[in-house]
Amino acid sequence: MAGTALPATSERTYGTVFRRWVADARDALTSIFFPAGCRICDSFLVRASRVPICDECLSSFAAPPYPKCEVCGQPLPSLAAVVETVVCPACQEKTYAFRRARSYGMYEGALARAILMLKFEEMQPLGGWFGARLAEIVAQEGEAMAADVVVPVPLHRDRQKERGYNQAALISKPLARKLRLPHKAVLLMRTRPRPDKQVLSLEERWASVRGAFATRPGSQVDKLRVLLVDDVLTTGATLDACSRALLESGAKSVVGLTIARAAKNLVASGRKSSE
Known about the structure:
By secondary structure, the protein is of the alpha/beta class. The chain has helices at 8-33, 55-59, 89-92, 109-121, 124-141, 157-163, 167-179, 202-209, 237-248, 268-271, and strands at 68-69, 85-86, 100-106, 149-152, 188-190, 213-215, 225-233, 253-261. Helix 5 (124-141) packs across helix 7.
């Protein structure tokens, strides 16, 4: 009947479809007239995107299908034919203060290059893409990754001022939006800067973060389940130090999420220096 209004649900659906059509058309025209190359492999991007990485490179980021430590997520390829889940030696010794940690992929190849772009070029769209992938991991893990608040691992104020942004927050903000959780970047602070030395030994890594984080005075942490976010997990020392600061301030639990993690377990010898 003429003049009959569409139901609100239909209007929203039509609006969503129309916006997607416009976006697809815009992307197609842009890719024709302004072709760009993938920042990883240099191949032409077949569609316009704020993420300057081709679909093939993005799909290569996924973690290998190895069994992993059910606590820290360390891949254990040597056990692929033996067990599905296991606790690694470091977690058997209760090395970490966080309850669980998971990563999207391994810090190598194309993924490592993408993380460097995020870290040094403030590439917010890429941070959003990674945030969406980490949200998928949270959904897969279910109650084991349940949280009340999302917190990025902080930079020291001098490093933050020098860089102008915190790469961990480029991931944690869109992740919090996806999970519909509060984002509390001010909850945690780094009280001591990282040593100027570019390459740190395992012992130096653990020593450099021991006691280097604290909750901000007046922060409300009591009984919160915290989802702690960083770009890379190497030894786990940073997530551990942040977790200890949060738990000492009354947090109920801490779980960690990173884009990537080191391919090898670099934990055991580093732990001794942290005790």
